Amino acid sequence: MCRFLAYKGRALLMDEILYGPKNSLICQSINAHEMEEPLNGDGFGIGWYTHELSDFPGLFTSIRPAWNDRNLRYLAQKIKSKCFFAHVRAASKGEVNESNCHPFHYKKFLFMHNGDIEGFSVIKRFLRRELSDEIYDWIRGQTDSEHFFALFIDHLKSICENPGLEDIVMAFKKTLTKIDEVKRENGAEGCTYINCALTDGKHMVAVRYVSDLKEKASTLYYAEGARFECHNGICHMVDAHSPEHAVLVVSEKLTSIEKDWKEIPTNHMITVDEDLKVNIIPLTEGVVSAETKKAV
Questions:
Q1: Cα gap 61→265, rounded to integer Å
Q2: Residue 166 and which of 65, 205, 272, 293 are 20 to 30 A apart at CA?
Q3: How far apart are CA 6 and CA 153, in angstroms?
Q4: How many Cβ atoms are within 10 Å of 229's Cβ, its own excluded?
Q5: What is the tens place of the pLDDT at every residue in 205-238?
Q6: Whole-prediction pTM value?
Q7: What is the pLDDT of residues 6-58, one digit of tens each?
Q8: Residue 293's pLDDT band (cuts 50, 70, 90)
Q9: Which residues are catalytic?
Q10: Which residues lie below 8 Å from residue 83, measured CB to CB, with a gap of 6+?
């Protein structure tokens, strides 16, 4: 099911989050605690923004296990950013190659996913028919994740040329609705699990969604405060008693400090605006599948 983290706040050295916490993302790559299969060794990726250089993110992906990649260790000690993503992969759809490693990148946007679109092999052809020529040709990999992102980008482009946070939220809802519609029309069975995060370097959105509420959604948490810091192996989110602010979204808690972490409710999304204001938004009736309606 993969593991990921998304950070937005004051400039932070990537090493502090990737390696510092007791249950860091690197630890989760070999021994995740909140999933049935603890191993996420089918590659990794990091994406980050350095806005003084470019609005487009930097990206590094590899098919090596994150726990055993010295290049990642070196890079994490040298990359400092106000906004970055990191992902460790457990392959379910698609081969183990760099084209299938998250985060996926389109222009200013980074996207990563922890979940599964069951029945993807049935709907893949029909899903690709929904795409514009540009986005169809942009796809490089085989995963349900990248195809979901591709559909999202097309929906976003149809809404606005210069999208803001509200446009991103609307595009997510339209994408979830379309996935459920295509599955229903083509007899694709099974549940859709979407735990994902997206950013354009200024805004950040993460979604926790399951199409059938009889099924358990994958875990997703967030922490917010003044800043995240590690000292002598002790990592925590410092309470917001200063003008500083920081937000972390993770598929699995990085520490055992319970007060730092809040669970994002099932079928909700978290949004973080340019001023780091956090909102939790319920997904509307329009994205609730027939299976979910029966369970409610």
A1: 30
A2: 293
A3: 19
A4: 15
A5: 999 999 999 999 999 999 999 999 888 778 999 9
A6: 0.93
A7: 999 999 999 999 999 999 999 999 999 988 889 999 999 999 999 999 999 99
A8: very low
A9: 2
A10: 7, 8, 48, 49, 199, 201, 202, 204
From the list 84, 134, 72, 133, the residue with the least C-alpha distance to 110 is: 84
Which amino acid would we find at residue 292? T
**From 112-116, 158-162, 173-177, 242-246, the region with the lowest mean pLDDT:** 242-246
Q: In what order do the strands lie in the sheet with 246-250?
A: 58-62, 44-48, 80-88, 3-13, 246-250, 221-225, 262-263
Q: What is the pLDDT of residue 230?
A: 87
> Tell me, what's the pLDDT at 36?
83
Sign for the CA dihedral angle at 96, 14, 48, 35 comes to: positive
User: What six digits make up the tokens of 15?
Assistant: 């090493």
DSSP result, the chain: --EEEEEEEEEEEHHHHHTSSTT-HHHHHHH-SSSSS----S-EEEEE--TTT-SSPEEEEESS-GGG-HHHHHHHTT-EEEEEEEEE---SSS-SSGGGPSSEEETTEEEEEEEEETTHHHHHHHHHHTS-HHHHHH--S--HHHHHHHHHHHHHHHH-SS--HHHHHHHHHHHHHHHHHHHHHTT--S-EEEEEEEE-SS-EEEEEEES-TTSPPPP-EEEEESEEEEETTEEEEEPS-SS--EEEEESS-SSS-GGG-EEPPTTEEEEE-TT--EEEEEPPGGG--HHHHHH-
Distance in angstroms between the alpha carbons of the first and the last residue of the chain: 26
Strand partners, 234: 231
